[in-house]
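Duplicate of #3305? Posting structure anyway:
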C-alpha cells in the first residue's frame, strides 16, 4: 500500500488552543505524524511517497480565493512562535495561524491530491497521511484544527473521472465536507460521528441534513451516542455502507479520524485498537478503489498502532 506524506506537514506547530477561555495544550500535535510513521515502519510498511505540487486551482476551485490569499499572506507576517487567533476567516479558538501553517496546509492538500492521482493511475488503495486535517474547513473558513479540506479537494479532483463517495469516520462531523457537496449529486457524503448536540461542531451533523437541490438525498448523517461500543458501531457502519453501495461510486474516499478510540484525550467513544482492523475489513468489502485520508486522532502513544490495525483490514 502506498503511503503519502511529507515532514513539511510537521512545520505547523501551535502551542495552545483556547477552550472556554482557558489555554490548553494543542491536541493536534506534529508528533501524531511521528507516531504513525514509526508504527508503519515497525510493521514493514515501506512504500512511502512524497507529495508533488498540484496547480493551485485544485484548492481554489473549492476554497474562496480571498480565504486562500488570507492564509498565504497573513502567515508571512507572523513571527516564529507566535499564534494568530480569530479573524473573520477563522471560526473558532482551536485553529490558529502560525508562521508555517499555510506551507503545512498546502503540503497536506498535496498529500491528498497525490493519493487521488495514484488512484486514477490504477492503485486500488492508498493512504494519504494528511496533517493538518481537513474535514472542518469550509469554503472560506478554518475550524477544528483544519485549514484546507483535503478530502473535499481530493473528491473534487476525482469527481471529474467518476462518481465519488466519501465515508467520514472521524469522531466529529465533517461540516466542511458536507458543506462543499451539499448541493451536488456527483459526490455522496456519509458520516458517522458524535451527536452534535453534545460535541463539536455543534451546529451540523444532524439526520435531517440530507442535501439540497440536486444534492438532496446525497448527504447522510449518523449521529451517535457517547460511549458507543465496537459492536454497536460496526452495526451502524454496515448500514452506512449500504448507502454507499446503493450509490454505486467509482471511487471511495475515507475521511479516517481515529479520535473514536476509547482513550482519545478529546473525544468519547469506546472503540478499541483491534476493532480498527475490523472497521478496515468492513470498509474493504466495498470493491471500488479507495483513498484513505487522515483526519483526527489525538492519543499520540497509541495513534500509530491504531492506524496499523486499521490498514491491516485492507489488502496491502
Ligand atoms: N478541548 C478534528 O478531529 N474541540 N478536529 C476541541 C478540546 C475541537 C477536532 C476541544 C475539536 C476539533 C479534525
Ligand atoms: Zn475529529
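Output from current build:
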Amino acid at each position: 500500500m502506498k503511503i503519502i506524506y511529507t515532514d513539511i506537514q510537521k512545520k505547523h506547530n501551535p502551542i495552545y488552543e483556547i477552550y472556554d477561555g482557558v489555554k490548553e495544550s494543542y491536541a493536534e500535535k506534529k508528533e501524531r505524524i511521528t507516531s504513525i510513521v514509526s508504527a508503519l515502519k515497525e510493521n514493514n510498511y515501506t512504500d512511502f511517497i512524497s507529495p508533488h505540487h498540484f496547480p493551485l486551482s485544485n484548492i481554489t476551485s473549492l476554497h474562496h480565493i480571498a480565504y486562500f490569499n488570507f492564509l498565504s499572506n497573513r502567515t508571512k507576517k507572523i513571527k516564529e512562535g507566535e499564534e494568530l487567533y480569530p479573524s473573520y476567516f477563522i471560526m473558532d479558538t482551536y485553529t490558529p495561524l502560525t508562521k508555517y501553517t499555510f506551507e503545512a496546509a498546502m503540503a497536506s492538500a498535496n498529500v491528498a491530491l497525490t493519493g487521488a492521482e495514484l488512484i486514477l493511475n490504477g492503485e486500488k488503495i492508498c493512504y494519504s497521511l494528511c496533517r493538518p486535517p481537513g474535514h472542518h474547513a469550509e469554503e472560506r473558513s478554518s475550524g477544528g484544527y483544519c485549514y484546507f479540506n483535503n478530502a473535499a479537494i481530493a473528491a473534487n479532483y476525482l469527481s471529474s473521472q467518476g462518481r465519488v463517495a466519501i465515508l467520514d469516520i472521524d469522531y466529529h462531523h465533517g461540516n466542511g465536507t458536507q458543506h462543499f457537496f451539499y448541493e451536488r449529486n456527483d459526490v455522496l457524503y456519509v458520516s458517522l460521528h458524535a451527536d452534535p448536540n453534545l460535541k463539536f461542531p455543534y451546529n451540523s451533523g444532524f439526520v435531517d441534513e440530507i442535501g439540497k437541490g440536486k444534492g438532496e438525498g446525497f448527504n447522510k448523517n449518523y449521529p451517535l451516542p457517547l460511549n458507543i461500543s465496537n459492536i454497536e458501531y460496526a452495526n451502524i457502519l454496515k448500514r452506512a455502507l449500504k448507502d454507499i453501495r446503493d450509490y454505486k461510486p467509482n471511487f471511495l474516499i475515507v475521511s479516517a479520524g481515529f479520535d473514536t478510540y476509547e482513550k482519545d484525550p478529546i473525544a468519547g467513544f469506546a472503540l478499541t485498537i483491534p476493532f480498527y482492523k475490523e472497521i478496515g475489513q468492513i470498509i474493504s468489502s466495498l470493491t471500488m478503489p479507495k483513498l484513505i485520508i487522515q483526519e483526527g486522532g489525538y492519543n499520540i502513544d497509541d495513534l500509530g498502532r491504531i492506524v496499523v490495525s486499521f490498514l491491516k483490514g485492507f489488502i496491502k
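Confirmed duplicate; merging threads. DSSP finds nine helices and ten strands in the chain. Residues 19, 24, 94, 133, 136, 144-146, 170, 172, 200, 257, 259, 266, 295-296 surround Q9C (ligand 1) (CB under 6 Å).
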